[in-house]
Write a structure and sequence with these properties.
Chain B: Keywords: Aminotransferase, Transferase. Chain B: Belongs to the GcvT family. Chain B: Residues 9-256 form the GCVT N-terminal domain. Chain B: Its EC number is 2.1.2.10. The complex is a heterodimer of chains A (119) and B (369). Chain A has helices at residues 23-29, 76-79, 83-86, 111-118, and strands at 2-3, 8-13, 16-21, 32-36, 42-44, 49-55, 59-63, 68-73, 95-99. Chain A is α+β, with helices and mostly antiparallel strands. Chain A has a single domain, classed as RNA polymerase II/Efflux pump adaptor protein, barrel-sandwich hybrid domain (OB fold (Dihydrolipoamide Acetyltransferase, E2P)), CATH 2.40.50. The model of chain A has no long low-confidence stretch (mean pLDDT 95). Chain B has 369 residues and is of the alpha+beta class. Among the domains of chain B are: 10-53 and 138-228, Probable tRNA modification gtpase trme, domain 1 (Gyrase A, domain 2, 2-Layer Sandwich); 282-369, Elongation Factor Tu (Ef-tu), domain 3, CATH 2.40.30. Chain B has 8 helices and 19 strands. Chain B has helices at 10-15, 36-45, 65-69, 119-129, 150-154, 198-209, 219-228, 270-279, and strands at residues 19-23, 26-31, 47-51, 56-61, 85-91, 97-105, 109-114, 133-136, 140-146, 169-174, 177-182, 191-197, 214-216, 283-290, 301-303, 313-321, 326-334, 343-348, 351-358. In chain B, the strands form 4 sheets. Chain B has a 6-stranded mixed β-sheet, with helices on both faces. In chain B, helix 2 crosses helix 7 (219-228). Chain B is globular. The termini of chain B are far apart. Classes of the chains: A alpha+beta (119), B alpha+beta (369). The A-B interface holds A 30-31, 33-34, 36, 52, 54-57, 59, 78, 81 and B 30-31, 35-37, 40, 220, 223-224, 293-295, 297, 319-320, 322, 327, 349.
């Protein structure tokens, strides 16, 4: 699993990567009450706003971690946005994307580096 | 957080694991480890303890303090019975609201509580315009204990509170020194606001928190609780540009201060404000219920249709309501779109989402009348 400075995780799954936010980020956000997901088949560039997460108090943007195409989104979050808090690393995933350049994944932080960043 | 003031409860907040944020010049707890959602629900179910010591506490002394204060507020202060409290607001010459306040009659003086962000301006305003002694209280903290279990918890310390009803005020001696207690709050629930000497504040707070029914509650849940209860936040839902009638606060202007009343007018902006009783208002504060799950937050522009270009209103407070389990907002809309069940469209991140005008509050008010 790889991590960004924006507190996203990326997990390779076949030729796709699954993207979500870390436990640390979910705790900082507080209780998530609404998640607005992009449409599938959306081309995105690194840094684009792709997901909006609303906690009780505040709306936050989730950025595209790398260039690529979003091919699937986690529709379950529409009815159960709290999955982002209860299971951020698994059932609380946001979208799956096909990277434009799969080798870019290697440029991201590993778990040790991410844990050092939030320490 | 530099240059921020702290309250006498600061150390307790840190020990309880609060997340501290700057608010109105103070470092205040926005939430504790339980989180906004649980804190909110716990307050409605049992009881929550809030530190509201950042608010201003002021005494007005003198035989004619009530009539003096009436020159600044459109509220009947002269006939407020001893031992009772009333909601009010300072108005400006244009009929706008400078701050909303609580006024209590304590016999030979009035006790006024003002908002933190406005307190310096409010005190200067009173000192300049009132021909009576204005005493700003320092050295006293203010706690709010809110929720259905409040009476049972507080009566363990002060048995007398069982005899108080909504908006009663009392000065009582206790093992935590002299307490100034009112049966009131900002959550829509039964509860109390308790002024206590700074030296006793942490001890009193710890005693209240020792009850398993009481959790500490931060500003986050304070905001969602007051929003569900349909209560205005000064600076968001009311300000210098909103009139009391636009805000739907005409109930706080008693007959004696209206046209043909015993002491009609005589406050800043009276002509404008009293004229609106006859002529109506162009815009109105309303409740707004988004039809989807996306909250419509403060600043969201409202439109009559999905493609109109001219906004007919704007959201002034909006969040997810943990008790009602859906997003809730308050907004100002033009009078011709203010009828209950009118559907309007909020611009949320470039999309026009439907929302329905509704009556306030969103949750029933559980006061002990």
């Amino acid at each position: 699993m790889k991590f960004t400075e924006e507190h996203e995780w990326l997990r390779a799954e076949g030729d796709l990567v699954v993207v979500g936010i870390t436990k640390y980020a979910a705790e900082q956000l507080g209780d998530v009450v609404f998640v607005e997901l992009p449409d599938a088949d959306t081309d995105v560039s690194k840094g684009d706003d792709v997901v909006v997460i609303e906690s009780v108090k505040v709306a936050s943007d989730i950025l595209a971690p790398l260039d690529g195409t979003i091919v699937e989104v986690n529709e379950k979050l529409g009815d159960e946005p709290a999955l982002v808090n209860s299971d951020p690393l698994d059932a609380g995933w946001f979208f799956k994307m096909k990277l434009k350049d799969a080798s870019e994944l290697d440029s991201l932080m590993d778990e040790t580096a991410y844990n050092a960043m939030i320490a | 957080m530099e240059n921020l003031k702290t309250t006498a409860l600061h150390e307790l907040h840190l020990n309880l694991g609060a997340k501290m944020v700057p608010f109105a010049g103070y470092e205040m707890p926005v939430q504790y480890p339980a989180g906004v959602m649980k804190e909110h629900l716990h307050t409605r179910a049992k009881a929550g303890l809030f530190d509201v010591s950042h608010m201003g506490q002021v005494l007005l002394h003198g035989d004619d303090a009530a009539l003096q204060l009436e020159t600044l507020v459109p509220v009947d202060v002269a006939n407020l019975p001893e031992g009772r409290q009333r909601y009010g607001f300072f108005t400006n010459e244009n009929g706008g609201i400078l701050d909303d306040i609580m006024i209590a009659n304590r016999g030979d003086h009035l006790f006024v509580v003002v908002n933190a962000a406005c307190k310096d301006a409010d005190i200067a305003h009173m000192e300049k315009n009132l021909q009576c002694k204005v005493e700003t209280i320092s050295g006293r903290s203010l706690l709010a204990l809110q929720g259905p279990a409040s009476e049972a918890v507080l009566s363990q310390i002060v048995p007398d509170v069982k005899d108080m009803r909504f908006m009663d005020v009392r000065i009582v001696n206790s093992s935590f020194g002299t307490l100034w207690i009112s049966r009131s709050g900002y959550t829509g629930e039964d509860g109390f606001e308790i002024s206590v000497e700074d030296s006793q504040a942490i001890k009193l707070a710890e005693e209240l928190l020792a009850s398993e029914d009481v959790l500490p509650i931060g500003l986050g849940a304070r905001d969602s609780l007051r929003l569900e209860a349909g209560l205005c936040l000064y600076g968001n839902d009311i300000d210098e540009t909103t009139s009391p009638l636009e805000a739907g606060l005409q109930w706080a202007i008693q007959k004696s201060r209206r046209k043909d009343g015993a002491r009609a007018g005589g406050f800043p902006g009276a002509e404008h404000i009293l004229g609106q009783f006859d002529n109506g208002v162009k815009r109105q504060r309303v409740g707004l219920q988004p039809e989807g799950r996306a909250p419509m937050r403060a600043g969201t522009k409202l439109f009559a249709s999905e493609n109109d270009e001219t906004a007919i209103g704007e959201v002034t407070s909006g969040a997810f309501g943990p008790t009602v389990e859906r997003p809730v907002s308050m907004a100002y809309v033009s009078a011709d779109h203010s009828d209950t069940d009118t559907v309007v469209f909020g611009d949320v991140r470039g999309k026009r989402l439907p929302a329905r005008i509704c009556t306030l509050p969103f949750t029933p008010l559980n006061f002990k009348r």
